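Re: How this chain folds, sequence and tokenised backbone to follow

Filed under: protein folding, tokenised backbone structure, sequence and structure records.

Contents: The amino acid chain and a row of whole-number tokens, matched residue for residue.

Body of memo: The sequence and its backbone structure tokens, given next.
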Amino acid sequence: MMKIGCLSAFILTVACVPELEDDLPDSLHAPQVAEIDCLPEGTVIAAASRQTPDGNLRVYGDCVALTGGGDPVNQLFGTVTCASPASTVSCTDTDAGCLPNGAPFGAPGTTVQATWTGADVPAGTASAAIPGLMTIVGPPTRISRRQPFYLYFNSQSETESYVRLIASDRSGGSPRIIECIVPAADHEVLIPDTLNKLLPISGTVDVLVSSIGFVRQKLGVFQVDVRVHGPVDGQQAFTLEITD
């Protein structure tokens, strides 16, 4: 299966997203995104892409909105490995993707090290611990573009960990993405109404929530995100109805 740019297997779909409105925060040049996900059951996902021209990035609190830019072109990591005392899983990244399965990486608190030999993305390494159980508290089923969106959760993680919420649209090959990453100790994710204006005036949006140990590095033109995932209880993926 051909990779389709950034955010690997966690790209979600938002239908009919309108143009950004004038009161959104000032736009910056978005980084080129490269991502490695080490999943607790022993799966590794790696994906990277470049856009020419760059996309636009707007930052608002713990959330960012990435819009525009050229059609993402696949970029390669080389050989990617996620390793813990319990398991080592590797694959060589190709245009067909990098999605191997192995043995589980261990219990919460176990450190997982990700390494990549380098190709289009420069070589590197990063480590994070598997988070403890995160429980999602009754996600909403409807959201207004005129109001902030809240998602509440409880975390039992005893290591530094974060909760990531992502929704995105890909129209004409160019991604539009809302991503929020908050410390697990916050117990809530907030997408402010300023960014909710990106959502369709009517329709639905799919949401995915992850519990992660998280490292972000700047390597050349790439922003490399390494995420070590932990267990989640509750509706990790759900659909929201959008109202104006």
About this structure: Residues 1-24 have pLDDT under 50 and may be disordered. The helical segments are 193-196. The longest strand covers residues 203-219.
